[in-house]
Amino acid sequence: MLTISEVSKSYGGRTLFKDVSLQVNREDRIGLVGPNGAGKSTFFNLVLGHEQPDNGTIHAQRGSVLGYLPQESAPAGDETVLELATAISDEIAALQKKLKHSRADGEDNGHDYHEAIARFDELGGHQLDAKAKSILKGLSFRDRDFDRPAREMSGGWVMRAYLARLLVMEPDLLMLDEPTNHLDLEALLWFQDYLMHYPGAILMISHDREFLNHLVTSIVEIRQSRIFRYVGNYDRFLSQREASEAQLMAAYKNQQKDIARLQEFADRFRAKASKASQAQSKLKQIERMDKIEAPTSDERKIHFDFPQPQRSGQRVISLKDVVFGYGATPVYQGLNFEVERGQRTVLVGPNGAGKSTLLKLLAGALTPQSGTRELGHNAKEGYYSQYRVEMLEPQRTVLEEAMETPQRVTEQFIRTVLGSFLFRGDDVFKRVSVLSGGEKSRLALVKLLLDPPNLLLMDEPTTHLDIPSIDALLGALKKFEGTLIFISHDVYFIRQLATTVAHVNAGRITPYAGDYQYYLDKTAATSARAALTARGGQLMPSDSARAARETETGSGLSRKEQKRLEAEMRQSRSKGRKEQQQRVARLEKEVTELESRLAELTTELEKPETYAKAGAAMHLNRELSGVQHALDQRTAEWETASSKLAEIEAQESGES
Question: Which residues pair with 15 in a beta bridge?
Answer without folding.
Answer: 10
